[in-house]
Every structure is written in C-alpha cells, then in structure tokens.
Q: What sequence folds into this?
C-alpha cells in the first residue's frame, strides 16, 4: 500500500442534509490532484474529512497510510494545509508568523531555524520577514501562508482554493511552486475554480452535489465527453447532472437553500 | 501522540504575548482602566449622607430660633443655607431638588420656649431617595430628643426641682470593624473585585473568539496542536496581566483611599489570585461558546450586571428573597466579596474564609472543565 490518499465511499451528513455522498478515489504519491466543482458542491467538506477535522458519517479513508478516523493526529503532523482565507496573524511580522507555525509543528532550535531559512528561500520572501503581515499585499500574504504550511516538510499538501481572488501573475508564481514541490515528491491536493490551473493537474476530480461524478487525467476527461476545453466540460457536467440529480427535487420544493 | 508538548505550548504563549504587547490600546486598558475606575467609583459610591442642602422658613426670627438653626447645621447632615418665606417657595426648592429638606419654625417658637410650653418645629424631607430621607429623619429626631432633654433639665433647674438629672435607661452601642461607619471602607474592597471581574472577563472572552473571527482557528484545527496547549497558552498571559492589574488596584485602594487591609496581605493576594483564575475561566468559557466578539461582549455583560446587584456589592443579600439569594450564590463575586471584606475590614484569616475559598476553587475547576470540553468540540 503506497497511496498518498485512498478513500472509499466517504459520506458526510449534517442532520438530514447530505454534503458528501459516496466519494472514492486514490492518489499516488508525488501527484497533483485538482478538485473542481461549483460553490457548495462539497469540495471543502471532502478536504476537511481528509485532514482529520471532520468525522465521516460513512466510508473510510487513509491519508499517507493513516486512518482518518483513528489516527487524525498522525495525519495532521504530516500534512500542510492552506485555505482561501488568510490564516496569518495580521499584527505579527512575517517572521513571527513563521516562528509560530514552526512551534505549532513542534520544530525548535537549529531545525526550526534551518526550516525557516529554507522556506523563506523557497517562496522568495527575502528581506520581508520583519514586515507586519497587515502591510503585505494579498498575493504576498498567500505566499507566506503557503510557506507556513511547508515548514514541517509535509508529505501531502492540501490547498483549498489557494488562488481565489489572487492576481494572474501571483497565480502563475504560485502554480510554478506547486509543480516544483510535486516534482520533489510532494503530493498535492488542490481545489480551484480556474480551469487553466485545473488543466495542469495530473488528475482531476469533478465534484457536484456532494458526489465525485468524474475522475481522471484532464486529457482523458476531455476526450471522454468530446470537449475541447475544461470550461466547456465543466458547463456540460453542470447542465447534464443538474437535471437528474435527485436532490434537485428537494431544492425545487424549497428545501435547503 | 496526544501528549502535552512544551514547544507547541511555548509557541502559543509567545504569540499571545506579541498580540498583547502590539495592541497597546488594550494593554493600557487592562492596566490603567481598573485604576481609573476605582478612583471614580470610589468617590461616587458613597452612601454616607452629609451636608444636604436645606431650606429654612424661620417665622419667629428670635435668638431661640436662630440657635435651633445652628444646632441643625452642627449635625453635619444638613446645610440650612437658604432662607425663604412661605410654603410655596419651600415647595419650589424641594420640587427642583435644590433642597432635600425644609425646616419650618412657627412665629410663636421663642415665646413658647420661654413660656415653658411645647414648641413645634416642622421638618419636611424629600423621601424619593430613602437612604437620604432616613439619614435626615434620624439626624433630626436625634437632635429633637437632645434639644428636648436639654430644655427639660433647664426647666427643672429653673423650678429648683431635681439636680443632676439622669436618664433612667442608657443604651450603650459600639460599632465594630468600621467604627466611623464610612461607606468607603465597605465599598473599596468590593470595588476591587467588581472591577477586576469586568476588565479581565472582557479581555479573556475575546481571546479565542478572535481566532474564530479572523479565520485562523480554521488553520489551527488542522495542525497537531492540542486544545489544552492552546488554552493554557492563551490563559497564562492574561493571568499575568490580571495579576499586575489586581496589584495596582489594591495599591490604589490602600494608598489613595487609605483603606488598609486589617488582615493578612499575602492571604488577600492568594485568594484574589484564586478569584482571578475563576474569572479567567468564565472568560474562556464565553470565548469558546461565542462565535463573534460582539456575542462574547454581550455574554460578558449578562454576567456582569447581576454581579453588581445580587452579589451583596451594594444591597445586603440577607434581605433578598430566597430565589435571588440562590441566584447570587451562583456568582463567584459573591464569595470573593465575603473574602475581601473579611480580610480588609474584619482581619479574619482562612479559618473563617475556607468555605468561600473552597467554593471559588470549585467554580474555577468546573468552569475550566466545561470550557475545555466545549472548546474541544469546536476544534475537532
């Protein structure tokens, strides 16, 4: 068993509402997997279950060989996570933020200093370490946040819409970094709304109404539905699936809005 | 893996201290506000009634009536500074609040005194504030009694009967602990508890909820940090601030207001620290329940208001209906007030305070347990 992520029939219900319905997929180490799907389709819920912070209602999953139900702490120590929200402390400097997360991942002394230097080099922070995070631009904040998620050399990097609201140049820089990390052997799970980003992933998962309705390489997916680009594919899926989704009936009846 | 790790705890601790020191306004508020509050409230909360503005309608205008007015002034309770003619003017003074009491001396006052008859003096009291009215009434009645006795003995002497008149009953009263019955001696120690509670509870109640609002909590839950490490790391800086703040208001009470604890100062600090931890536990509990800082603030107020009225801070708990006594018993401040007043005023030691101290301990442990349990849920 050498899979980075292996999930089988994951289900998550919040009361009567089913947020995630029977999601199964597997990713080999060192690959980039992209999650695409409309807002509220369940991408974040799947990601949270894989991080070990939400308990699945049904099904099972192992992340880096650890069970999400029984070994969430083992998983947390080995994954890097970054969300679309800026998870940094505005009133702390870049360096203080990095120091804090280094401590939280139980790094200290020489190792902590070495990792800090490595990350600063990696994301090109240079002499910005003494700057308050509040004074950074959105793109830079996002890079620092990524840096904080990489301090403890995670084997799996999970990014939840990391480039939402980021300018195209920063997005390019960001994705170059993701590809570089994957080449070095890191597994990356990333959700996005940008199809150009999705196109560069090794695998794509299309999430719609809590189900993984398509999974495969971007090329294979486009070919199977005979579409030229992912935008068309995305729209095709939405129109095709929305019509026969059983939960749409609930929505039309004025159920959960 | 679920083991307390010092590195993680220290990281939180350091971060919290940076937050606090960088937020100068809040730091100053935590340290200076209690002192300012104590100084202001120390003067404001004064139930000693003295020098009330009083209006006089002296219809007699004789030596006797003027002597009567001087006696009233000498009680210190009333200042008969305004002289009027007629009821209408008196009514105006009382209605407008320019005077709290009125003294009316009839035209035949001197004649009756000299003529060995009974003279009448009418005193009108503004009873809208019962405390004030009661103080004036007792002062006036005391004065009337003393004056009567004095005149009586003069009259007996003039008739040549009985010398060295002695009262048949002598009631000896002595006031313990606060012999001058200064309300400040009673109020300052209690104010220390109340102010400490307001400022520290408010500060701590923001500590965790702030992370929720900023979205950093979402990040923290996916890290290996344990709830206990995070909670203690957040709690400890406020213990330090709370202790500094508490020491400063104690010193203000002692040196500015001259309210010196009669009992043991180390015991006072020890039990005050216990109270501080209880307050911090309340703050943390609020912080782990509330979703926004506004909610946290509202919850803090919900606890603060009954504390003022039900803890025995102003009104004695003994006279409250049973239900309110029980409600007051749910507030940690109630027990701290007994402790702080006991040490400040009576100078009693732990042999009388152990029950209240144990109750505070129980509060601290139960509240911290609930807070960390509540907190775990939001983290996992």
A:
């Amino acid at each position: 068993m050498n899979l980075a992520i292996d999930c089988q029939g994951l289900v998550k219900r919040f009361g009567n509402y089913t947020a995630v319905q029977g999601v199964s997929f597997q990713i080999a180490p060192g690959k980039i997997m992209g999650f695409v799907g409309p807002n509220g389709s369940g991408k974040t819920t799947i990601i949270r279950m894989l991080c070990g912070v939400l308990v699945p209602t049904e099904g099972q999953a192992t992340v880096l060989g650890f069970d999400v139900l029984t070994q969430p702490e083992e998983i947390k120590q080995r994954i890097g996570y970054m969300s679309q929200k800026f998870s940094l402390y505005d009133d702390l400097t870049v360096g203080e933020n990095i120091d804090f997360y280094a401590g939280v991942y139980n790094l200290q002394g020489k190792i902590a200093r070495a990792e800090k230097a490595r990350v600063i080099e990696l994301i090109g922070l240079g002499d910005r370490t003494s700057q308050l995070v509040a004074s950074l631009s959105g793109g830079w904040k996002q890079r620092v946040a990524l840096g904080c998620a990489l301090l403890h050399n995670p084997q799996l990097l999970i990014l939840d819409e990391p480039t939402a609201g980021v300018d195209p140049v920063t997005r390019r820089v960001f994705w170059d970094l993701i590809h570089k990390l994957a080449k070095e052997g890191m597994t990356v799970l990333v959700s996005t709304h940008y199809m150009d980003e999705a196109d560069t992933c090794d695998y794509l998962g299309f999430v719609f109404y809590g189900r993984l309705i398509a999974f495969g390489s971007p090329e294979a997916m486009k070919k199977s539905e005979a579409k030229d680009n992912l935008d068309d594919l995305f729209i095709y899926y939405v129109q095709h699936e929305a019509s026969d989704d059983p939960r749409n009936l609930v929505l039309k009846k004025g159920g959960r809005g | 893996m679920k083991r307390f790790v010092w590195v993680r705890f220290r990281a939180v601790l350091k971060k919290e201290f940076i937050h606090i020191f960088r937020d100068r306004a809040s730091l100053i508020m935590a340290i200076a506000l209690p002192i300012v509050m104590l100084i202001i409230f120390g003067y404001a909360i004064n139930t000693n009634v003295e020098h009330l503005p009083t209006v006089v309608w002296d219809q007699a205008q004789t030596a006797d009536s003027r002597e009567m007015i001087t006696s009233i002034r000498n009680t210190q309770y009333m200042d008969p500074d305004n002289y009027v003619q007629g009821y209408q003017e008196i009514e105006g003074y009382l209605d407008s609040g320019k005077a709290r009491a009125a003294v009316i001396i009839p035209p035949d006052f001197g004649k009756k005194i000299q003529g060995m008859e009974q003279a009448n003096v009418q005193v009108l009291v503004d009873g809208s504030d019962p405390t004030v009215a009661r103080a004036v009434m007792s002062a006036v009645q005391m004065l009337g009694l003393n004056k009567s006795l004095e005149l009586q003995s003069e009259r007996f002497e003039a008739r040549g009967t009985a010398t060295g008149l002695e009262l048949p009953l002598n009631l000896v009263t002595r006031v313990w602990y606060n012999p001058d019955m200064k309300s400040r001696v009673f109020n300052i120690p209690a104010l220390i508890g109340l102010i400490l509670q307001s400022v520290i509870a408010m500060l701590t109640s923001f500590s965790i909820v702030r992370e929720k609002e900023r979205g950093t909590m979402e990040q923290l839950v996916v890290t290996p940090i344990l709830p206990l490490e995070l909670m203690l790391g957040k709690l400890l800086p406020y213990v330090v601030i709370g202790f500094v703040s508490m020491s400063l208001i104690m010193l203000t009470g002692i040196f500015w207001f001259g309210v010196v604890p009669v009992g043991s100062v180390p015991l006072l600090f020890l039990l005050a620290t216990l109270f501080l931890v209880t307050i911090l536990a309340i703050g943390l509990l609020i912080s782990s329940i509330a979703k926004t800082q506004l909610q946290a603030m509202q919850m803090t107020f919900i606890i603060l208001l009954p504390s003022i009225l039900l803890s025995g801070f102003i009104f004695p708990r003994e006279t409250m209906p049973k239900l309110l006594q029980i409600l007051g018993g749910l507030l940690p401040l109630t027990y701290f007030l007994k402790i702080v007043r006991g040490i400040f005023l009576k100078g009693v030691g732990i042999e009388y305070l152990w029950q209240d101290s144990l109750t505070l301990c129980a509060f601290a442990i139960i509240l911290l347990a609930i807070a960390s349990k509540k907190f775990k849920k939001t983290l996992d």
